[in-house]
Design brief:
By secondary structure, this protein is an alpha/beta fold. It has a domain of 143 residues: Rossmann fold, CATH 3.40.50.2020. 22% of the residues lie in helices and 26% in strands. It is built from 4 helices and 9 strands; from the N terminus they run E-E-H-E-H-E-E-H-E-E-E-H-E. A 5-stranded parallel β-sheet has the order 4-3-5-6-7. A 4-stranded mixed β-sheet has the order 1-2-9-8. The protein is globular, with a radius of gyration of 17 Å.
């Protein structure tokens, strides 16, 4: 029987766990979202000596609601309003030619990026290829002073020399596992799934 994995207070459930209430072999348990995001918010303020020049940019899809949640935590620490935007990386992916007819969504940036400390926000950091695409996309819109990266989960297995500046939780995984982050703004609930099988496409959250 597959059991729940507990990672330092973060609860991850393997798909197919017996004895859970979810149907179709799918199971999970809630985990404390606010703590990691609150900590990341404090780290952003400390690193950038305030938020006057900080811009949050969420990578579509699930990076956007995470950026909005992070924004709310920053507002509780610093009174200065932090702009929040969204970026679509579809046309910048290095596997675009292999996956044709991918939908392209809008990129919405709240202000010029020149001279700003841009914090990219995403749910799961995996190979690093999506983050590279996001950085390429950002530089088409301006020249930030710095580009920083905040992720909810870092699952390892990098294929490019990319490292997150702010991490909610490091979760060791096997390559044949998926880490699925569910958000209530997108999926109707907050949860993290650890699922056996090859990683799913970018639209499901691995970066």
């Amino acid at each position: 029987m597959t059991s729940l994995r507990v990672q330092g207070g973060f609860f991850l459930a393997r798909k197919g766990t017996k004895g859970c209430s979810r149907s179709k072999g799918r199971s999970w348990t809630p985990w404390p979202w606010s703590g990691p995001l609150r900590r990341i918010a404090h780290e952003i303020v400390e690193r950038n000596r305030g938020t006057q020049q900080v811009v949050l940019v969420g990578i579509r899809t699930r990076g956007v609601p995470l950026a909005q949640r992070l924004h709310r935590h920053l507002q509780q620490i610093e009174p200065h309003p932090v702009p929040v935007g969204a970026i679509d990386i579809t046309l910048y992916r290095d596997d675009l030619r292999l996956q044709k007819n991918r939908p392209v969504h809008a990129t919405s940036l709240p202000c010029p990026l020149d001279g700003k400390h841009v914090v990219l926000v995403d749910d799961v950091l995996y190979t690093g290829r999506s983050i590279r695409a996001a950085m390429d996309a950002l530089t088409d819109f301006g020249r930030p002073q710095t580009i920083q990266l905040a992720v909810l989960i870092d699952r390892g297995h990098r294929e490019l020399p990319i490292r997150a500046d702010y991490v909610g939780k490091n979760v060791p995984t096997a390559r044949n596992e998926q880490v699925r982050v569910l958000l209530r703004e997108v999926d109707g609930e907050d949860a993290v799934l650890l699922v056996a099988g090859e990683p799913v496409p970018r639209t499901q959250g691995d970066a």
